[in-house]
Amino acid sequence: MSVPSSHSDHSGWRAAAACAGMPPQVVFARRPADAEPALRACARCPVARECEETVDPAHTWFDGVSAGRLWHNGRPVDPSRRNRAHAGGGTSGGGQHGGTPAPLRRAA
Known about the structure:
Layout: H1 11-16, H2 24-27, H3 32-42, H4 48-55, H5 57-60, E1 64-66, E2 69-72, E3 75-76, H6 79-86
Antiparallel strand pairs: 1-2, 2-3
């Protein structure tokens, strides 16, 4: 049986994290565009595994970046949705259901 380690045992990996020193609004961002610097840092982070094990985003309802993924309420944000949101996303004039808008009619 293993005993959970104390908070102080984790300070070493946090200092080695690629996101160390980034502003909290980047690391704990909810919007994909705001999280991009932290997500890029995760790609080269030597302690990504320790980050995910310690943060345990799925069980803590975490919001922000952990181990290379953006999380909202403990669920990973789908990377394809993240990329669409970063690229502007949304609909292109077709209304919220994505259809083609009906042409406007002039009153007679």
